[in-house]
Amino acid sequence: MKRLTLAMTCAMASFAIGLTAPFATADDDHNKRLSVTVSFGAGLNTTGPANHHILPNVIKVKSGGVVNFVVAGFHQVFVYNPGTTPKDIVVPASGTFINDLTNIYYQGLSPAGSPPPGLANTQNRVESVFFDRPGRYLVICNVTSHFRNGMFSFVKVIDCSVPLVSVQLTPLTSLRTPSV
Ligand SMILES: [Cu+2]
């Protein structure tokens, strides 16, 4: 038995992704998963619950990578440290925003009011979030009604430098067809 490093596994996964999605290479750093684009909101041609989605549902990125949230419309990105689940979010009975800061990792720009100095909080924008530690991070839209409509996702940060898996490799000699 030979041990494969996760780095090799990541390379193989990238190859597999390349086989299944040969055209999805421009926005994810040639499938190296260091820069990933995510749709935060279904788009500007949708309204109501149809808009309240984060795509994809599971976002995969390497540690040290960046997720670029493309915000379409009135939304606010909140990212929580590993351990927080959607059921942990304390949703107020009323109000536009949830604002649960427990275990928060990244608090995105509010689409309401004035932006922080030096930043723009226009409703249509890109927010780039850096992830340096492996784990499973919950991402939600902080707008109360949107979260209630299921607007949340997960960022799965993978550390490709640590050996985590092992597989059984079959020697090539055992695969030869016996001669007749
Ligand atoms: Cu939203």
Overview features:
180 residues; alpha+beta; Immunoglobulin-like; five-stranded mixed beta sheet; four-stranded mixed beta sheet; 2 helices; 9 strands; 27% strand; disordered N terminus; binds copper (II) ion
Cα end-to-end separation = 30 Å
Strand order of the largest sheet: 3-9-8-5-6
CATH topology: Immunoglobulin-like
CATH architecture: Sandwich
| Biggest sheet details | 5 strands, mixed
Order of helices and strands: HEEEEEEEEHE
C-alpha geometry: globular
Structure class: alpha+beta
Domain count: the total is 1
Uncertain residue ranges: 1-9, 11-29
User: What share of the residues does DSSP label as strand, in percent?
Assistant: 25-35%
Number of helices: 2
- Estimate the helix proportion, in percent: 10-25%
**Which whole number gives the mean pLDDT?**
83
Number of strands: 9
Report the CATH superfamily: Cupredoxins -  blue copper proteins
Broad CATH class: Mainly Beta
Q: Ions, cofactors, ligands: which are bound?
A: copper (II) ion
Q: What's the Cα radius of gyration?
A: 20 Å
